UniProtKB/TrEMBL annotation:
InterPro entries: Nitroreductase-like, TAT_signal. SUPFAM superfamilies: FMN-dependent nitroreductase-like (SSF55469). The keyword Signal applies. The keyword Signal applies. This is Twin-arginine translocation pathway signal protein. Keywords: Signal. It comes from Azotobacter vinelandii (strain DJ / ATCC BAA-1303). One of its GO terms (molecular function) is oxidoreductase activity. It comes from the Bacteria. Residues 1-27 form the signal peptide.
Length: 382
């Protein structure tokens, strides 16, 4: 019933706007300002172990780089995680499904870092109940800490190198079955993770993804406008608000035309068309795909999918592989429903199970990260 109400009410969809020259836009060094979170110095710069762990957690993948995390140290043994009410995709992620997945990734990184600091961690998801139809002020997670021998998961070693890679993959380097099984083995719930190398199914995934992108971004103006509105254009805008999609000065210098909120949202502009071409080239280079399916459409399924997605991405990074999520045919609004049904059929996922994450995995040139706000900016007073 919740899902039916949401689908009837939703009017838009989300997609990550492809930024044509984003790879190699900035070096992640200590002097890189909004990119300085991606340094070893930033991970160890805090006296409080809980803040050091938070500095790891903020490097989690999250939709449109909204960084919606708000953390409260309730006491020495409890950490509350909530969603910032002003960091939502009100058009394109109306039920906050993507945000919930992103919070799962954030919490998983937080847990790994806390364990390395000498804390045993018990995660209580949605301690005050699952929020519907939108996330609200209730916590998404309560982390219970207790002293323990430090345990460093090898996945944590890849945290500074894990970046979403939106460039075309080298199809000659497509991982085979053994490597994909090695990748999936790190999941908390490996029985919920699936992969494909069969060419016909891969072609269907690519086709559905590309058509869904066009439905969202070419044919539905509110979606385009929402992404463009959050995009930080130029170094000064990024420094002033280091969250959201970012187009540094180095990217603007290579753009095929003037870059503005209007041109990013105009399907006829040279910038929009370049973004579309580059996005299509990236998707079309995907021959190996992973997806995570929850048993049903609920918050805990979304949250758990995020926890496993970041584990898979960290392991892929350790293995020299790149990953990019394809969320285009997974959204919750009327115009995308045909693609959602088509994708579930192509992946062999029947109701009530639901695909929460889908993406390609392969080999590609290294890319640089998205900007981040400082870890302390996500802390709230008890």
């Amino acid at each position: 019933m919740q899902r039916r109400v949401l689908l009837q009410a939703a009017a838009g969809a989300a997609t990550a706007l492809w930024l044509a020259s984003r790879p190699a836009a900035h070096a992640a060094d200590a002097d890189a300002g909004p990119w300085s979170a991606w340094t070893a110095e930033a991970l160890r710069a805090h006296a409080d172990a809980r803040v050091r762990a938070l500095a790891h957690a903020i490097l989690a993948p999250n939709p449109q780089n909204l960084q919606p995390w708000r953390v409260e140290f309730a006491d020495a043994a409890r950490i509350l995680v909530r969603c910032a009410p002003d960091r939502r995709l009100s058009v394109s992620d109306l039920p906050d499904r993507q945000l919930t997945v992103g919070f799962g990734a954030f919490v998983e990184l937080y847990v790994l870092a806390l364990q390395a600091e000498g804390h045993a961690v018990r995660v209580e998801a949605f301690p005050e109940g699952e929020a519907w139809p939108l996330l609200d002020g209730r916590p998404l997670a309560l982390l219970h800490l207790s002293p323990a021998t430090p345990v460093r998961d090898p996945l944590l070693d890849a945290v500074l190198q894990r970046h979403t890679n939106r460039t075309p993959f080298d199809r000659a380097g497509t991982p085979g079955p053994e490597r994909l099984r090695e990748l999936v083995a790190v999941a908390r719930r490996p029985e919920r993770v699936f992969w494909n190398l069969e060419p016909e199914r891969a072609a269907r995934i690519r086709d559905i993804t590309l058509r869904a992108w066009d439905a969202e971004m070419q044919e539905f103006a509110p979606t385009r406008d929402e992404v463009a509105r959050y995009t930080r254009i130029g170094d000064a805008a990024i420094a002033a608000a280091p969250w959201g999609p970012a187009m540094p000065d180095a990217v603007l210098a290579k753009a095929p035309g003037p870059v503005s909120e209007a041109s990013l949202s105009d399907p006829a502009s040279a910038v929009f068309q370049a973004n579309r071409r580059n996005y299509r080239a990236a998707v079309e280079s995907g021959d190996a795909h992973l997806w995570i399916a929850s048993a049903q459409y609920d918050r805990i399924g979304m949250f758990d999918a995020g926890r496993d997605w970041v584990r898979l991405h960290l392991q892929a990074t350790r293995m020299g592989l790149a990953m990019q999520p394809h969320s285009q045919a997974l959204h919750d609004f009327a115009a995308i429903l045909p693609y959602v049904r088509e994708l579930h059929a192509a992946l062999g996922v029947p109701e009530p199970a639901h695909v929460q994450m889908l993406g390609r995995v392969g080999v590609a040139a290294q890319v640089n990260p998205s900007p981040r706000e400082p870890a302390q900016s996500h802390l709230e007073r008890a």
